[in-house]
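Supplementary Methods, section 5.1.

A reviewer requested that the exact input to the structure prediction be made available. We therefore reproduce it here, unchanged from the version used in the analyses.
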Amino acid sequence: MLAVLPPLAALFIRVLGLTLRYRDVNASGVPVGIEIPGPVVFAFWHRTLLTCAYRFRNKGIAILISASFDGELIARTVEYLGFYPVRGSSSRGGASGLRNMAQAYNDGHRCAFTADGPRGPNMVAKAGTVQLAELTGATWIGTYHAHADRAWLLKSWDRFVIPKPFATVTFGWPPHVSPPELEAVQAALDEAVRMSGDVS
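The structure derived from this sequence is encoded token-by-token as follows.
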């Protein structure tokens, strides 16, 4: 499985991604996050991992991934797509995961954090993103949301989104959260969802 599934999954993401169209809705003065060089910290919802994967490929973006077997499959998949997997989580193994993410930040990576991962509740921000900012001395946290206008929703805890081929994906980029505080991260992510037009 470890030898076969990750390259196949990466190929699927590349093929699907080639069919997707992207548009951005930005708050005044806020650039698209991938235009900002690292090190930076961004938060997003777990359900949009696949929706974002193709657009953000080959940027060396650090992503915190569970140390489980499923996490190993995901880590190998995202490596094929040019991401930088960091092992650990915000629950089990969370302390080491956060330290490893902080090291990635200090090495100059853009760091993307699933604010509600790895187990939810769905679209409820946990403290991990703010803790990462505190560890690194980051003075702000960016947020975004990606909404596909045509998609399949899985019956998972996060209602995981699989964009349908030729869907348009709208990214909402609200103002950065400064200073980094949990309530403000939640509010910014809620605003990102609204800006993207996601009413699911």
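The helical segments are 5-19, 49-53, 69-80, 94-106, 128-136, 182-196. These observations are discussed further in the main text.
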